[in-house]
Amino acid sequence: VHPTSRRTYLDGVRAAAPIGIAAFAFGLSFGVLARAADMGRAAPVVMSLTTFAGSAQFAVASILGAGGGLATAIVAAVLLNLRYGPIGLSAAGALKGPWWKRALLSQLIVDESWAIAQRDDGRIDRHLLVGAGLLLFVCWNTGTAIGVLAGDLVADPESLGLDAAFPALFLTLLWSQVRERSRLLAALGGAAIALVLMPFTGPGVPIVVASLACLVGARRPS
Amino acid sequence: VNAVWISVIVVGLATIAIKAAGPLLLATHTPPPRAQAALEHLAPAVLAALVVTQSLGGDNGGFTIDARLAGLAAAAVALLLRAPLLVVITVAAITAALVRLIT
Question: Would the CB atoms of B16 and A159 count as touching at under 8 Å?
Fold first, then answer.
């Protein structure tokens, strides 16, 4: 994405379309899993509308479904979503306007919309972020609603290989990020921290700690 | 109110607050240059961590090696051949689906 070219909301929608299919399919499977976990019909739909973060929602449904405790489910989900703290800080410059508008638009931040909205200069493109976020929001929530209502009809997204679409998306976006040496160092640091921590911490923590690898960039202000 | 609704409400409110925190806190303050430079390196750090956790992560932490890794390898080959995003994602999904089909 070139920093000087003007992007529109539609560009964001287009950029997110390929991964929107996978988001829809996983929304479906969240709806199915949530029904199977006795979460009822309304709760999973409300959760997709408000939490709008796949991994945390799957964690809650699978922990409650397996008879795990309420506190366990909440702690796991919050840990998984803590990465949106640093991610939100990096997106702050792209969200202008009154506080309620910034708070509202910040809800469209998910890993995929934030990744798609990266510009070459390391900042976030507002139009790409909002366009991609809106499409993913629609896909995720439509998928959840259909999964809750008509879950028995759907194929398992993993049998279609759709779970492999997400790391492929992140790898593609990373690819264009690491031409500069300092960004390559940040990427290698982030990957190394995640690999070292994964065996010892719950899911979520490795990504939060890996975000500290961005500090290699603080040595040379641009 | 049962456990399901408590978890939906608590997790929902916590996530909304976490996502909104940065954009609300940095509304009036532009971060100092060095902090801004660090934030501009957040994408490669977090994207690399996401590649690792989403291709190797197990359901309850730790590592799980499965068809996702084959999908990621195929995606890397597609990237080396300069394929566009849609092709990279499709190649990864088809590869992972085929590996699951034959194993």
Answer: no
- Nearest CA to B14 out of A55, A116, A54, A75 is that of A75
3-class DSSP state of B63: strand
Q: State pLDDT tens for residues A153-200.
A: 667 888 888 889 889 989 998 998 888 899 999 999 999 999 999 999
The answer to whether B86 faces chain A, any CB pair under 8 Å, is yes
- HEC assignment per residue over chain A: CCCCCCCCHHHHHHHHHHHHHHHHHHHHHHHHHHHHCCCCCHHHHHHHHHCCCHHHHHHHHHHHHCCCCHHHHHHHHHHHHCCHHHHHHHHHHHCCCCHHHHHHHHCCCCHHHHHHCECCCCCECHHHHHHHHHHHHHHHHHHHHHHHHHHHHCCCCCCCCHHHHHHHHHHHHHHCCCCCHHHHHHHHHHHHHHHHHCCCCCCCHHHHHHHHHHHHHHHCCC
In whole angstroms, give the CA distance from residue A90 to residue B48. 16
Cross-chain residue pair B46–A217, CB shorter than 8 Å: no
Q: How many residues does chain B have?
A: 103
Q: How far is B28 from A152, CA to CA, in rounded Å?
A: 50
pLDDT of residue B56: 94
Give chain A positions within 8 Å (CB) of B30: 93
3 state DSSP class of B29:
coil
- Cβ A129 vs Cβ A117: under 8 Å: yes
Interacting residues of A62 by C-beta distance below 8 A, sequence separation 6+: A33, A37, B59
pLDDT tens-digit readout, B17-61: 999 999 999 877 788 889 889 988 998 999 999 999 999 998 777
Q: Contact B22/A122, CB-based, under 8 Å? A: no
Structure tokens at B41: 């390196």
ipTM: 0.91
CA dihedral A120, A124, A126, A130 (to 10 degrees): 110
